[in-house]
Amino acid sequence: MALLVLIVLGATLGWLASILARTEAPGTILRQVALGMAVSVVAGEIANEGTMIGSLSFLSLGIALAATGVALVLYHAVARRSVKA
């Protein structure tokens, strides 16, 4: 159940990041959703002491949320920097 929650959290944050950044290219939107899902699952698993069976603690959920947000902000900073160059 924890794995499903983290996947949905990451996908939702990636989708919201694409809306906030006004991204219109389908490949870029999918890249942001995939990045959000991957970071959320990895950070949540590390914070939940390596287990995805059972429940997810609020601390793990918060860490996954923060890590996904930071990763998406960094992705947008690098993407905009490479477009300007």
Automatic annotation (TrEMBL):
Transmembrane regions: 58-78
Alphabetical UniProt keywords: Membrane, Transmembrane, Transmembrane helix
Superkingdom to which the source organism belongs: Bacteria
Official protein name in the record: Membrane protein YeaQ/YmgE (Transglycosylase-associated protein family)
Organism: Erythrobacter ramosus
